[in-house]
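Final report, results section. Input specification for complex C-07:
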Amino acid sequence: MSVHPLEMRSVTKRFGFFTAVRDLSLTVPQGSIVGFLGPNGAGKSTSLRMSLGVLSPDEGQVRLFGGAPDIDTLKRVGFLPEERGLYKKMSPRAIISYFARLKGMSASDSRKRADELLEVMGLGNFGRSRISKLSKGMAQKVQILSALAHRPDFLILDEPFSGLDPVNQQGLEDMIIEEHKRGATILFSTHVMEHAERLCDSIVMMARGRKVFDGTLDQAFGALGRAALIGVEDGYDLNAAISPKGFTENELAGDHWRVSLSAQYDAQDALRAAIEAGAPITSFRPEEARLRDVFVSLVSEAEAEDLEKTLATRKATEAA
Amino acid sequence: MRSIYLVARRDYLGYVQAWGFWLGLLLTPILMGVGMMAPTWAANSQPTRYYTVIEQGTEFADALRAELQEDRIALVRMTLDPVGVLNDEPSDKLRAFDDAIDAGSTVEAALEAAGGAQISLPQADFVAVAPPATDEDSIRPYLMGERLVETSEGPQPLFAAIFVPEDNGEIEYWSENVTSRTLLDQVRAAERKITERKVFEAAGVSPRILNEAEKQRRDITERRARPASSDSGSQVTMADRAPFIASVFMAFLLWFLIFSVVNYLLMGTIEERSNKIFDSLLTSVKLPHMLAGKLLAVLAVALTLMMVWAIGGSVIGAALSGQMPADIRESMFSVAGAVLKPSLLLPAILSFVLGYLMYGAVFLALGSLCDTIQEAQTLMTPLIVMLMVPMFMIVVAISDPESPILSVMSWIPVFTPFLLILRVPTHPPLWEVIGLLVLMVVAALVVLWLASRVYRAGAVHGAGVGDVGKWFSKMLPGKKGETG
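Structure output:
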C-alpha cells in the first residue's frame, strides 16, 4: 500500500492567543488534485506551511510521504508560497536552475530544464533578463516554474492563480493538468471556486481555522441540496398547489419559486407536479449548484456557529 | 554540504556581480592612499605665507626662523632615512645632513651636502619679509590685504606682523587670520627659547656652553634582554618591533573587514525578507545550512577583497622595490615575516574566523527582522558604536601593547577577536591565550544559536523591528509586553 503524500492528524496551531488552525485532519491521496478552499484568514497558508515543516504544529501530527517533513522528503515536493518573491537581480533561467539544484538536480539538467520550461511558458526570450525587468505576471510564472522544475511528486501551490490575468490563469490550469498527467499529486489553495470546480477531484474547505468540509465535488454539491426554479404568473401560490404532492419546502425568490428537492425527487418531478396542479407556468430550470454556493453556505454556517459559541462563552463569562 | 555550497555560490555571485562590490574593491585602496597622502598634499598645497618682525635688531626674527626651520628639518630627515630616524640609528647620509645643519647651513644646502639633491624640498610655509611699516596703524592695510608687500614671488599680502618691544613688554602678534595657529605657536616657542637663553646668560652660561652641552649628550642605546642562549645579540632591531607592527596591522585589517563585509549580510538578508523568498528557501535548504552558506559567501567576498588587494599591493610593491632604499625594503620584509609567523598568524586566523562568525551572525539576524535599510539603521547604531571600541583599543596598543586595559577588555567576548591579536606579540601566558580562544569559540556558538533563533522568528514568523522593542520591554522589571 502506497503512503499518502500528505496526512495531517488533529493539527492545531496557535499564535499567542489566536488559534490559526484548529484540529485539522486531512489526507491528500497519491495522484489526486485537492483544492484547499477558504476565505482570507481561514488558516489555509498556515496549514500548508505546517505541511512543509516551515511551521511546527502545537498539537497533532503532520506526515509528508509517511514521515515528518524534512529536507530530504521536501526534495519530492514543489512549493509555491503565497507571498511571491524572487531575487530581483537574478535571471529567470538562473533562479529556476538554482531552486532545481537545491532540490537535487544536476547543474546541466537544471539549466536544460529551465530553458525548456521558459520556452513552454512563452518566456524563452526573457531567460537571461533580470527579474526586476519582468512584469509581475511574468515573475509569477517564473516562480511557479521554479517550484516544479525538479519534477516533484507532490506540488503544493498556495493561491497560484492570484495576480494572474485570465489568459495566464488558463495557462496555469493547463500546466496543473499536465503535471497531474505526469503523475504528480497536487494540493492547491484558492478562493476562486471556478478553478477548483474545473480541476479538483476533492476539496477541503476551511473557515476560521476549522475544516468545514472534506470530500468530493459531488458530495459538496450534495451538501448544498438541489432545487427546481419554477416561474408562474403573478399572484399564483405555487406552494399551496404542490405541497400536497410532497414538495413542501418552497420559497418565492423574485420572479420565480425555488422548490427544494428531497432525495427521491428530481427537478422534472417538481415540474410535473406543478403542471398537474394547473399552475400557470412561465419558466422552468433546474438549479445549477456552484461550488461558490456550497462554499458560502458552509462558511456562513461555520461563522454562525462560531458566533453562537462566542456569544455563549461571553454569557457564561458574564454570569460567572 | 551541497546545499551550503549552492547557497554560498549564489550569494557570492550576487555580491561580486553588484557594482557596489567593484566600487569598494577599487575605491578602498585609492581612498586609503588618498588618506595617507592627504597631510603631505595639504602641506604642499598650502601657499607660502609672509610675515614680518618689527624689532630692534634681528634676535627674535632669527629665533623664529630657526623654529620654523625645525619642521622642515624633521621632514627632510624623515625623507632621507625614515628607518634611521625611527630607530634612532642615523645613516651616513643623515649624519652628513645633521652636521651641515649644526654648522649653520640652510636646509637646502644641508640636503645637497647629504647627497639628497633628487629630493624635492617642499616650499616653506612661512617666509619673513622686511617690515613694510613700523607701527600698527601703518601695517594694518598690509594685513587686511589692501596693500601688498614685495616678495620673491612678487607682491603678496602680509599674513602676520610681530611687534617685539625693546623693553620686556608684551610681544604682539597681529594677523587678520585667527584660525591658523601654526605661526603663533612658533612665535611662542621662539620667545620661550630666547627667554631661556637670556636666563642662562644672566646666570653666566653662554650659548656656546649650551651648544657644547647639547653636543656632548650621550647616545642612548636600547637593548633587549634575551635568554643567554639566544644568538641574536641584545641590539633592538626592526625584527623586534615587527610583531607589534604586524599585530596592529592585522587587528586593523580584521576590524576593517568585519566592519565592511558584514554589511553584505545585512543587505542580503533584508533583500530576501523584502522580496519574500524565505519560504521558498526554507523548503529547499535546512536553516543551519542556509545560514552557513550565507556566512561562507560573505567570507569568500572578504577573502576575494583581501586577495585582490594583496596581489595588487605585491605588484605595486615589486614595481617600486627597485627604487626603495634597501633598509626600508628589509623593514617591510621583516614586518611581512612577522605576519606570517604561526605564533601570530594562527591566533589571527582563528580570531578572524570566530570574530567574523560572531558579528556576521548578528548582522544576519538583524537583517531578517528588517524590511528596509532605514529599519536596520535603528538596530545597527548600538552595534556600530560597539565596533568602534576595538578601534580605540588599537590606538592604545600602538603606544602600549601591554596596557592592563587591553588585558581586561580582551576578556569581553565581543572585543576578544581584535584584542587577542594585539596581545599576542606581548607573549601573554599560554593559559590566557587558550582561555581567550575557548571564550571566542563559546561566544561564537552562543551568538550563532541566538542568531538562528532570531532569524527563524524573522524569516518564518515575520517578526520585525517592533518585536525587538517588545522583547526588551518584556525583560524590563515591572513591564509586560503585549503578546501577539
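The two ends of chain A are 53 Å apart (CA to CA). Chain A has eleven helices and 13 strands. This concludes the modelling results for the funded period.
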